[in-house]
Amino acid sequence: MGGRSSSPLDKQQQQHLRGEHTLEESAPFLEMPVNFPLFLQHPFRRHLCFSAATGEAQRAWRLALEGGIRLRGTVLQRSQAPAAHAFLDAIRLYRQHRGHFGHDDMTLGSDAEVLTSVLMQELLPALRAQIQPGLRGTGRARAWAWTELLDAVHATVLAGASAGLRTFQPEKDELLVALQRTIRPDVDQMLRLRERVAGKLQAVVQGPLELCLRRKVDAQLPRVTQTLVNTLEATLAAVQTLLAQGMDRLSRNLRESPSGARLRKEVYSFGEMPWDPELMQTCYCEAEPSQGRLGCLVVPFGFLGARSLVFGAQDLAQQLMADAVATFLQLADQCLTTALDCNQAAQQLEKVRGRVLKKFQSDSDSAQRRFIRRWQLCILLPFVLSQLEPSCKEELPELEGDVLAAGSSALTIEGIYEDVIRGVLLQRIDGELKKTLSTSYVSCDLDGCLEALWNQAGADEQTGAQRGTSSKQPGSSTKVQPLCPLPPPGMFRS
Length: 494
Description:
- This protein is mostly helical.
- It has 17 helices and three strands.
- It has helices at about 10-15, 55-75, 75-80, 80-95, 110-130, 140-185, 185-215, 220-255, 260-270, 275-285, 290-295, 300, 305-335, 340-390, 395-405, 415-435, 445-460; strands at about 30, 35-40, 50.
- The protein is globular.
């Protein structure tokens, strides 16, 4: 483990040591010019500096740590559990009630880490005003004392948040059961009530909302859309190129070296490709420059979540690669049999390759639309809510009685109000997406691919080999897992 560098501190380090912490800093790595070190930053904790033995080791560590930080940071965003999304919504609503509307990187991390970041951000003004002036020493000694203080406070808050969440878990489970028991018998009545209240709210907010959208959103919407398109296009193109190269390498090795052991090794390497940080870095790097381009959204909309957006694009690249790899392996496993010679097997792989690339294009087009739509909403909805806050919110108490009469916490007047605004904003967003993105997507589901491949294979030769089936498609529903499902050991044997 290398020591700390004695080189002059850069501007961000100076800001950190003075206690000027923000979550919108540069990436949490700074490569220092001594003996292959890596410098890890955290807004509220002591920095870590360690060095590797060689430049190659330094790069390997950097890629591994970058991947770990990304996956740790987006663990809640990637979760399919309703509880995770409810937690993020609760954090957002809590901060809106305290006057913070812009989207930022505060929700990166686990639930305990997110709570700790929110609480630390609220504690910082008091710590600076009450404790920082009394710190002893001057210069670096004083800055170091402040850093140690923040580190201790952060550790205490994190431990308290973790313990509180564990303690709350049984109560949360009981509340969820009670809520389900309340909602299920009256769900139709609640939906009718929600629709009625939403209609009244629509009439209340329509004028101010349309005025806000025309004056402050409509003119900016094409630029926001294009910025997000630029963020994804190069990244997804790099994924497609890497995928095609991997499939081509398998076909080439099948023709040139039909050894079963060699081919199994190549298949395993291909299956591991989505989790190979060195290979995937070519895709992840395409998303990095957008972090600077997203700065154009800070002034008009107060958007400070560039790192979250870039992480999301990189997560999407990894997921699409994992889906495509799993699809290729399943199709290849079902189409290749021991009755085929090397040339016939290679021809089948070429057909599989075409189907996989076609499906990848369809999946990536759909994923791009969903990604852009979601992030447009993350950027614009908080801004619109903040603009309507002074006037429209005053009308809500008059309609709150209707919601309270339902006697369920599942409906709130603020939730319906936000849904109304979200619906109108999504109409604008969808209209812009229709103009910007092509709507002529080619759909290729896995069952169709299998049927077409078997029809083509049947024209070439007849075989009585057993063909495996799967009840689950490895397409868009595939989740990123530690290991990619691989075909049986007998695959690719001539």
